[in-house]
Predict the 3D structure of the following.
Amino acid sequence: HSLLLPALERNDIRTEAGGPLRMCEFSATGGRFLAPGETLSPDRELIARCRGGQVEVVDASSGEELEVVSGCPPAWHPDGCLTYVSAGEVLCGERQVLSRTELVTVARFHPNVVDAAPDALRTVTPTALAWLDLNVLALALEITMRSVEPQYMLVLLERERVIGWSVRFGGPMRDLIVSP
């Protein structure tokens, strides 16, 4: 159903063509509404968003662009470090969190990948990141292999050690959101 903000009144929301709007997506964090794919820093002063393969960091109050880094998707570490994927590696600022080789090792926890020949694995691409605390990273992966449809999984890592995973069928996971 649809709700009109800020009164939260039920209403049928229509597209410009007159049909019902089937999806409306937003999140509210720290008193701010964020567009899909935007994430608020722990101190609520910065917003990171992916645009055209780059992470844009903007001031949450003014909207002023402060930094652009090559890579996506973004996530904020609880200490305020911007985490993102660049050139096949997961970085927190300039610090490497996971190398390409480590991502392949993580991908091998997927039951359809575990016994695959090394040359069958084409790419391991993080599609979403979220820090659950100072040491635990949730990582959504899209894994491509020769002659097999893409494989998807969500992995929990504690200090680069896999502590849990879940396989998903039907498409990549995006926009992992951590509850306060």
User: Anything to note?
Assistant: Helices lie at 100-107. Residues 100-107 form the longest helix (8 residues). The mean pLDDT is 86. The chain has one helix and 16 strands.
